[in-house]
Amino acid sequence: MATKVLVPLLGEGVEEVTVIKWLKKEGDSVKELEPLLEVNTDKVDTEIPAPASGTVLKIMAEEGVPAKVGAVLALIGKAGEAVESGGVESAPQVNAKVSSDTSTGLSASQLSVGQPVTQSAVRSMDLGFISPVVAKIAAEHGVNLQQVAGTGLNGRITKNDVLSFVDSGKTTIDHRPQTMVSRPSSIVAGEGDQLIKHSPIRKSIAEHMVMSKHTSPHVLTVMEADMSRVVKHRSANKEIFSRDGVNLTFTAYFMTAIVAGLKSYPIVNSSWSDEGVLVHTAVNLGMATSLGEDGLIVPVIKNADNLSLLAMARSVNDLANRARTKKLQTDEVKGGTFTLTNHGTGESLFAFPVINQPQCGILGVGKMQKRVVVTEGDAIAIRPMVYLSFVFDHRILDGASADWFLMKVKETLEGWS
Predict the structure, then answer these.
(1) What is the DSSP string of 328-395?
(2) Of 12, 180, 362, 386, which is least surrounded by CB within 10 A?
(3) Of the listed 174, 198, 214, 394, which one is catalytic?
(4) pTM for this model (two decimals)
């Protein structure tokens, strides 16, 4: 009897994966625990091994197509074994088609997932995942879900969000059939142009960035820090740290300074909800890491407030190296409460980063440069300076409280001992 290859649970809250690449094709032999395919979730690529030895009889999930946890990806059995269709369900494939009736509030896309809407989750290309219950309530009350703010995980719209929207009296019921016209792209391909297909990572980045800008009001405040003491400390300790196998980078100093700021102003280590501001006890720092042309990923250092500079530097090294070699685990990119992006590695002086939802803010660090500054007593001196760009959620912080936090980060760096 054929063995089913199922989508495994790759982490808490992971509901689906995207098949990146099949390492075997139908008719190939495979050994138990040999890598069979690669999948992506939350920008983390993972190899799925074969659960048994045999021949790949049938592949049931296409590359680039989402598959739910528990769905059947393939069948493995004896060569020539007949594949029985009974009891075997292929991985659900999401196919979007333009609908002429938007009374469900699902914008211009009505999505078919191979099952009735009452039995499976629905994904809107604009709204993210919409559960059948939410879609049903929205349809009954004539709610346009584009106008509903989601308070669920990653901004997902929940049942209570729709009910609260209905209770607010903002809905205007209109059950007349509407014709949705798909807007044609204004981009015209010229001769010799090349279309580069979106990778799952690029799609994930795009969706998350657009969602973030629509979720919270972004405000930027910038300060300049004198890195003289940090540079001196690093020069004195870099060799000592290397004896322990640790590369003492400036990122470790920035992360430690952020911890000091979050300890002094815990409100920055928080997330917004309709019920109130949720201040997190754990300080879990995300570290934006470039993957080159593949995009970026944000591994998270858990409980960063308990780490010494040595431990912080070791964690920075480990996560950055495994991010670039695609060896991160799904749980290692989840649960962040604040994020650092060191855009200065690309020669950028300062930037306006996008908040990593559902966090309160993100700190951008520019390139460190020697600049002429005026010191005490109106003396002129040359100092290694860096711009600190703090982008915050204006629903949670005001200008004063944001500046207090950033000033603490600045003072920690300038007063390093």
Answers:
(1) --GGGGS--SEEEE-GGGGT-S---PPP-TTSSEEEEE---EEEEEE-GGG-EEEEEEEEEEEEEETT
(2) 12
(3) 394
(4) 0.64
